Each structure stands twice: as C-alpha cells, then as structure tokens.
Give the backbone structure.
Amino acid sequence: MLIGQVIDTNSAWIGQQMSLLGIRLEARLAVGDDEQEIRNGLQFLRTGADIIFLTGGLGPTRDDITKKTLCGYFGGKLIENEAVKQDVTGFFERVKRPLLESNLQQAMVPDCCEVIRNPWGTAPAMWFEQEGKIFVSMPGVPFEMKNLMTERVIPRIRERFQTGVILHRTLLTAGIGESFLAEKLRPFEDQLPEGFKLAYLPNLSQVRLRLSATGPEGKRLQVQMDEQVQYLESLIREDIFGYEEDTLEKVIGTLLNERGETLSLAESCTGGNIARRITSIPGSSAYFPGSVVSYSYEMKKELLQVKDATLEQFGAVSEETVKEMSAGCRVRFHSDYSIAVSGIAGPGGGTTDKPVGTVWIAVRTPDKVYTRLFHFSRNRQQNIEMTTIAALNLLRKILLGTVI
Amino acid sequence: MLIGQVIDTNSAWIGQQMSLLGIRLEARLAVGDDEQEIRNGLQFLRTGADIIFLTGGLGPTRDDITKKTLCGYFGGKLIENEAVKQDVTGFFERVKRPLLESNLQQAMVPDCCEVIRNPWGTAPAMWFEQEGKIFVSMPGVPFEMKNLMTERVIPRIRERFQTGVILHRTLLTAGIGESFLAEKLRPFEDQLPEGFKLAYLPNLSQVRLRLSATGPEGKRLQVQMDEQVQYLESLIREDIFGYEEDTLEKVIGTLLNERGETLSLAESCTGGNIARRITSIPGSSAYFPGSVVSYSYEMKKELLQVKDATLEQFGAVSEETVKEMSAGCRVRFHSDYSIAVSGIAGPGGGTTDKPVGTVWIAVRTPDKVYTRLFHFSRNRQQNIEMTTIAALNLLRKILLGTVI
C-alpha cells in the first residue's frame, strides 16, 4: 500500500475494535510489497506489541507476497489445505464465476500456522505464534477482513488476553468549530479526573469528541465515565447530534420514522449528495419518496415551479429561489418536509457579490420555511460536503424544535 | 489518530507526491498523542529514512502535543513569531470569526526550526534538520497540508535531493475482476523487464493497474515505460477507462463536452450517488441539466411516466421499468442521453426471484436503449457503488461506440 494510491481504512477499523477490547494500539505501520521490508517491520513491531495484525498481500496476483514471506519468516513450508480448497471452489460456484488456476493457489498455506477459514472470500486468514507473540495475517479486502475479525479472530483474542480496561465514548457535533467547542468545554477539561482524556477529531463541519478513560476493570470506571459524559453534554447539548457511529442522516431517519413523516429534496450545488446520504440508510424508502437535482435554470422552473422573475431578479443562489424551490419540491413529492439548496460550489461561477462557497439553504415544514446563508469558501468537494452537513443539521434542529 | 476513528488519507497522499519525485516511501507509521511514543517513532524512522514527514497534533486543543514534543526532541524552546502572529490574526479576520486566545498560541514556535508560514490555516509548518536528516511537521487538516506540501515543502525537497528515478503509470479499469485481468495480462507479466513491476489495486468493480519502473535517470527508462504501457493497453483496451487520477465521471464529462450533448439520470436504488459523481466535476452544468431520485412507485409514475401496468406486471426492479424510466427521464430533462437504474440495494427487500443486489440498468441514446442486468450480492453501500460504476461504465462504452 505504500505508493499511496490506496487509502488504508483497515488499520483504523482494527484499532477501533481493539480499543473496545481494552487493547491499546501501539503503532500502525505500512511497508511496501517487499520481503525484506515486511521482515523489518515485523521485527520492529514485535518489540513493542503482543499482537501484530497484517492485512493484504494474500491475493492471487504476483505482487501478493505476504503469505510466502510469513511462511519463510516463521520457518515453514507451503502445503495444500483440503478445507480451504473446498472453500475456494465453493466460493466461485456461489458467485457463478469460473475458477482460475491462480485462485487454487490460495489453498496452499504455511504448515507453521493455524488456518482460519474465510467464507467471505478466497484467501484464508493465518494465525502464527512465536515467543509469546501473536501474528494474524488477513486479506486486505475490507469486507472480508472485517468479517474475519468479528467472527473468527476477535473471539480468539478475547480468550487469550485479560487486560485492564479502556473505555471510549464518542460524542458527535455538527456546525461548531473546534476552537469554539474547546472554549465551551474549558471547565469540563479543567476537572477531568486522572486517567481521562478528551480528543477533538475535526472533519469539515463536524467534530467528534472522544472521551477515553483507563483504569482497572470494574463498575467504578463506568460510573465515572457516565458522570463525565453527562457533564460534557450539559455544556454543549444543542451541538451534539449523536454518539459513536451515528450520522446526521441516521438521526434524521429515526426522527422521521417515529413521526411517520416524509422528506423530499431539491438539490442544486450539492448535486445529489444529500439524497445519497439520506438513502444510505436501510429502510429510508419509508420516509423518502425521492428528490430532484435541478442543476439548470430550466429544471428549477419546470420541476420546482421557481418563477422566472425570481431567477431573473435574485439569481439562482438567493433566499427567494431556495424558498420557491423548497415549496415546489414539497408539492411535487407530497412530502411533509423539504430541503432546498442552491450555492456556488466552485471553482468557477463566483462573483464579487456571491463568491465561491456562497450557499442558501431552505428547510420547509408543513407550516413554515427556514432559510440560512453560508459562506464556506473551500474547494468544490468541501463546499458540497459542508452544505450537506449544514442542511441536514438544520433539518435535525427543526425536527427537534430547537430552532424557532 | 491511533484509536482508529480517523482515517489517515494524508500519508497516502504524501507517498504519492514523493513517488512522483522519485523518492521512495520507506514506511508509514502512526502513533498515539503521547510524547514518548512520538519520540520512539522518530528514532525508528530516522534509522531508515532521510526525510520524515509528520502531520497533525498542531491544533489549538490540549491533545495537540506535537509542537511541544518536537521542540523538546530537538532541544529548543518556544518563542513568539511575529509573522505567524500576523498570519493567524489575518486568517480570523478573513473568515470573519473571532480570534480566541488558544489560536494565538499557534504563533509560539520552536527556535530550533525553520518556520514555514501557512496562509491556508492557522498552524505553521516546521522544518527541522539534525545529523543530515530532515523532519517536516505540518497540520493534519488535509486541505492545509496539501497546500503547504505543494507550494512550500516540495520545492525545498526538490532543491535538496537528486535521486534515481522511479516512474509510475496507472491504468484504470472497470467492470472486470482482478483474476480475469491477471489471466489476460499473463503474457505481459511474463515479459516484464528487470526493474519493472505491476501491481493490482482492486476496489469493488474497478482495478487500478500500477506499473512501476526503477532505474537511472534518463530517457531510456521513459521509452521503455511507454513501450510497456502500449503492450499492456493492447491486451485490455476495452477494459481501460482512464489513467492516473481519471474517474469515470471525468471521462464521461469530457466526452459529453466534446460533443455538446447532455445527460440526465433517473436513480432509484443508487439514491443520488450517480448524480453526486457526475456533479463532482467542475463545469458539469454544461452537460447535466439535472436528475431525479424516484424512490417511490408514485414518483416513478408521476415524474417519469412509468406505467402503472408495467410496475404491477414486472415490478420496480425490471427491464421494462428501467426502460420506461429512462424514456421518461430523457423527455423530462430534454437531454440527449439518460441513465435509469432500479435495484434492490438491501439489506431488506430481497425475494427469491430478485435477491438483494439484483439491479437493472438502462442507458438511452437519441435512437436506442441499452439494458443490463447485474447481480452484485454485496452489502447496501457496495451494491450502490457497484451499480454506479456499472451504469457509468456502460454509458462510457456506448459513447465510445464499443457497445452495439
């Protein structure tokens, strides 16, 4: 993975899983597809860690050298494994693809490891032990690795290790900057007990707050954590939209589902990104009849009944236009709520009056319309993402009644 | 970044930039926000590398300890830097946000480094040298880091190092699996000259092929690379949709722009994801009037004129329905081409006849309609992504005339 064209999401996920077990991630290391580099990396990591996870390099192509390298490193040889051979054959029958010779190579495994069968793909995982250290090699395909970890590897790790506890709680905020949060949270940080730590993880208009606590196993730490979280919440209640793996779209979906109400969208500068997020939630069809991306003037008029005069007088990026878009959208989709956005995502299209990043958002409810103006001044992708977050967060606050 | 809730995209990007300079990435290491761990990491990395890049930990909050740690590691002390102070003050004036005391702390910099001013944010970068090794510390916000690297750091690196050359060429394929590509490319791999290497980087329905060559600087390696790329292309011409940073949506945008033709979309199971990708391209408004996400039966009928009888007889996920959706969409948006997709993204909604992952795609041109059936059988997010790629790739092939 070293050239940098592939983003490593695996190690982040593994770290998260380990931290839930109270196992501290000591380091993450990436090295090239080179036998010597892999060996050097193993030597470095085993000095500081008890468990070393390896992902990738187990595929059927020639640049996949991890299996051979590990086999040599632990002094074994490759032998055919009948169970894995059946798994591979079965996998290709199931996905109705022809089995290639190179795929059968995946049934050759080192005789110095415990093979962990992989029903989600073709390359099995391998569990090596040496001098009290554990090495687990898994395929790099995230879907396969995550299933192998959850179903096969983590249960074994749990059996083997009894550690102290690390607790984590993540609170998710939107629409407030890191420095402002830090100001509001100063009294909280000033009183944090020994062993507690607060981390700010900012990403565009969202900041994840991760509170960690280390200590001996038992109920006391959990109680302390609950108290600390309650205090933290009391300082920034309206900025928090969720916890842990929540997303704005998930929170909104839950709110709409509870009420049996529906939402439609009229997107201009976000180009379908809000719809994509809303529909990423399983079951969203219950509250989302659909949406329009009205990129052109014509479509704003034809599909959303925006008036010619409005576009001419105020332009597409204006409070008046998003108001009319939201009205047309709500009628078109027979929905309870609608969101309309129009802005200049860039890099072109900016003017002195309305520079790149200027965005108008309207949220319409059965009896009211709310509008907001934003100046994001970022690049195209970031302007789109920040608009999406701002729109979803405004709807969320309206649904909760915290915006009047 | 160690708990694993933040995905590290920075190191991947830096690796890519260095490889373009012919500087080989030796390793990537992530350690926790802990002074001793940072020091240990620096000690390990400096034994194998000439340049060490550090990102993150320079923010205004208390968990940001990189600056203090580096200052101590290199034996300096923090002093106020007047230029940085002005930068920080100016930045907050520009974004119209109040300046907090914590932000002014960013003007305190180690006296043992060269400060690299940061007009894109508030924390400056720092360039340390010790025993012939270079250490560059930058903010972790990707936008700031990338600008600092491109405008300030890379020019300095170029001045200092004269290395051998590593060439990379990336060919992008869609719609063909890794094993099938490997079969087609066997004769190519069998003849690869010394110093050349081919890597397969699969991601859902796309595989990036990265061909690398190392050798002395000069024209010969470049010529050899060109020959190898030509041979590779000749074996899989129709599978290649682009090169390097190309995307399907970029390639399609270029084709539509050249012809002055337009595209509209009627998305069901992809929920706006195709529109998002089309509109991620600056200037896409020239060929994209807009699109519809028709999630409900009603909207398929009202917005796209799909017949009641069609939905009743064949269901929403059927060849007949996507044909009618594509026809209604083309008329609705007055476009030359239209794409319509309907499928079962999952996890719910599957039946024996049409299991989760069943997807119908239609692409309509001024005089013909093309339909395709897919069985992706993945999770929701992957089914959506694979449908998006398949739809865009089908349109691309139709535009190029390689599908009849």
